[in-house]
Design goal:
The protein is an alpha/beta fold. The protein has 11 helices and 12 strands. The longest helix is centred in the C-terminal third of the chain and has 19 residues, at 300-318.
């Protein structure tokens, strides 16, 4: 009987799925159990702070898939992860992923649109109200025995103000619908002219000059990085408030701190930062800033839906199928997507 040569044997296909999304349920029916039913093994590596590219290289060793938070996936991380075939992002932002490098290596990148827009919109309006009503300032004062209600401590008003929305996609439109109940004037700037008679479209400079509150809803792209810098902040009223639930990189954070410290801007309400967590930021010392830990899109229902979709995307790719909501649809032309399930291939895919 002929004996198979060692070099004729295929290495077993990788089975590990690295999960960096915090609190992922390895026994959830549509999460960890679904992965195991597909022949995969979830490996939990929760991201709870800043994470470097070198750390990601170590975490992804031998993994076929990753269900991720805002972890860095640059070209070096992808090159060091030859078995990787899918990055399933829990959320919609892909600014931490090199899409071109992923596509070149046959790595599908998926997102979960439509799962958290309502949550982000709710949080955005909550930040607006917290800033203009000075909720955090008064909360801290009361806890320390204070009872400052008037004079320089008097809150401001959302009702009847002018709110400018920078970006009018799904989230921007959801924010506008919620603001309708506050009897505000809504201004919008967006590359695609809005078809909504309830809002007024204009260019960014005009919006900044006319708004009492400016709320950012633009993705982080090369064209939007530091979209709001010193020049743009100088166009805003000294009585205005800046709200950011988009990405920290959309704002020049040093310029924002300068404006807030010198009274050139009334207040800011921020869910996202240049560095996350913002442990060294001067923003932390400013009383006229409301902060939240990049959780605008998080609620129990939105997390359940996003993690379910991300898990489903991983399973689809492993089975040789095109997943929904590809951030890099060109990857389907790569040889890695030949239609054969990954479980039937060698480690080289």
């Amino acid at each position: 009987m002929a004996t198979a040569h060692p070099h004729d044997r295929q290495e077993p296909a990788p089975r590990d799925v690295v999960v960096t999304w915090p609190d992922y349920d390895p026994d959830g029916e549509h999460l960890g159990r679904a992965l195991r039913r597909a022949g995969l093994t979830p490996r939990l590596e929760a991201k709870r702070g800043a994470r470097s590219a070198s750390q990601m290289c170590a975490l992804l060793a031998g993994a076929v898939a990753a269900i991720v938070s805002t972890d860095p996936f640059d070209a070096a991380v992808l090159a060091a992860s030859p078995a990787l075939r899918v990055i399933a992002r829990v959320g919609v932002g892909v600014d931490s992923i090199d899409l071109d490098a992923a596509t070149a290596r046959g790595v599908a990148v998926t997102v979960t649109p439509g799962a958290n827009e309502a949550t982000v919109a709710d949080h955005t309006v909550a930040l607006m109200l917290a800033a203009v009503r000075r909720i955090c300032e008064h909360d801290g004062a009361v806890r320390q025995g204070g009872w400052n209600r008037t004079g320089q401590h008097t809150p401001w008003l959302l009702c009847g103000s002018t709110v400018g929305l920078v970006g009018f996609g799904q989230i921007g439109r959801a924010v506008a619908r919620r603001l309708a109940g506050f009897d505000v004037r809504v201004l919008v700037t967006d590359p695609i002219a809005p078809r909504d008679r309830a809002v007024e479209a204009m260019d960014l400079d005009a919006l900044l000059a006319q708004s009492d509150i400016v709320s950012l809803h633009a993705p982080l792209l090369p064209s939007t990085r530091r979209l709001i810098g010193a020049r743009e902040l100088a166009l805003m009223r000294a009585s205005a408030v800046l709200v950011n639930t988009a990405r920290g990189g959309v704002v020049d954070e040093d310029a924002l701190v300068h404006a807030l410290e010198r009274g050139l801007l009334r207040a800011a309400a921020l869910d996202v930062f240049a560095e996350e967590p913002p442990r060294r930021s001067r923003l932390l010392a400013l009383p006229n800033v409301v902060l939240s830990p990049h959780n605008a899109g998080l609620s129990i229902p939105s997390i359940e839906e996003m993690t379910r979709r991300a898990t489903s995307s991983v399973i689809e790719v492993v089975r040789g199928r095109a997943p929904e909501h590809l951030a890099n649809p060109q990857v389907l032309e790569h040889a890695a997507f030949s239609g054969a399930p990954l479980a039937a291939r060698g480690a080289g895919g």
